[in-house]
Design a protein that fits this description.
With about 250 residues, the chain is an alpha+beta fold. It is elongated and about 110 Å long. Helix 8 packs across helix 10. Strand 1 and strand 2 form a beta hairpin. The protein starts with a helix and ends with a helix. A four-stranded antiparallel beta sheet has the order 1-2-3-4. It is built from eleven helices and four strands; from the N terminus they run αααααααββαααββα.
């Protein structure tokens, strides 16, 4: 750059002190090489900086594993933080496929349920009063247990007693007969997650007539019982509580 400036501003090379120009150029070149070598050695010896994520970003990217933190993902997937983030950011289809297969492997499912059981034992459960409202003509609304509500929902969504179930659920499980045990297991796991959380952290209400079978179900939460404005977030302690009770993954 120094030489270029001299040549541009001094068209007449007879006025340029060539020995000084050559000396200055060599000095700049040596300093540049030395500086680059020092930087390269420092970069090679320095510890790699760990990727830092905002809490909101961490929660968002961990939802694909039904978890809420990288530490939980390390425990469940059995991968280091660096390797997990590298595979998630990889553009290699094979690496992405490997990560998906790993997340649905039997060992990972076992570790996920173990984490869910551990969190369920430590989660704080609010003590809400039971609800009972007698309307008229023998119709009443009252708090019910999961054992009472879940079978009614399974019948309604799955088409119990020969009736058709909820159309979307019928579509998802159209290959299974109505009495197939796998159909019942899926429904109990999927619905049980919400019911177990509702019974413990909100109000699970059932409508009956003259104490007969459950005719309608309502799961609701008082304002001070919500979790960030929702009943429960994917991967949260409440989610893991419901998972541990319903064995849903």
């Amino acid at each position: 750059m120094y030489m270029a400036m001299v040549l541009w501003t001094t068209p007449d090379m007879t006025h340029v002190n060539m020995p000084r120009l050559i000396l200055a150029t060599r000095v700049c070149g040596v300093l540049s090489v030395v500086g680059f070598l020092v930087y390269t050695i420092h970069a090679l010896q320095a510890e790699p900086t760990e990727l830092s994520l905002e809490k909101e970003d961490e929660v968002l990217i961990m939802k694909q594993f039904a978890l809420k933190s990288l530490s939980d993902a390390e425990e469940v997937l059995g991968l280091s933080r660096q390797r997990l983030l590298k595979q998630m950011a990889s553009q290699n289809v094979l690496e992405q496929r490997e990560l998906i297969q790993l997340s649905f492997s039997e060992k990972v499912m076992e570790r996920y349920l173990a984490l869910a059981h551990k969190r369920a034992a430590a989660v704080s459960i609010p003590h809400l009063k039971s609800v009972r409202v007698d309307i008229k003509d023998g119709i009443s609304i009252s708090s019910e247990s999961c054992d009472q509500i879940l079978p009614a929902l399974v019948d309604a969504f799955g088409g119990g007693k020969g009736a058709r179930g909820e159309p979307f659920m019928d579509y998802l499980m159209h290959g299974w007969a109505p009495d197939d045990p796998r159909r019942l297991e899926v429904l109990q796991s999927w619905l049980g997650l919400s019911v177990h959380v509702g019974v413990r952290f909100g109000h699970a209400l059932a409508l009956r007539t003259h104490g007969g079978p459950v005719e309608a179900v309502c799961i609701c939460y008082p304002p001070d019982c919500l979790e960030g404005g929702v009943a429960f977030e994917v991967g949260s302690d409440r989610w893991l509580y419901g998972t541990s009770r319903s064995q849903a993954y």
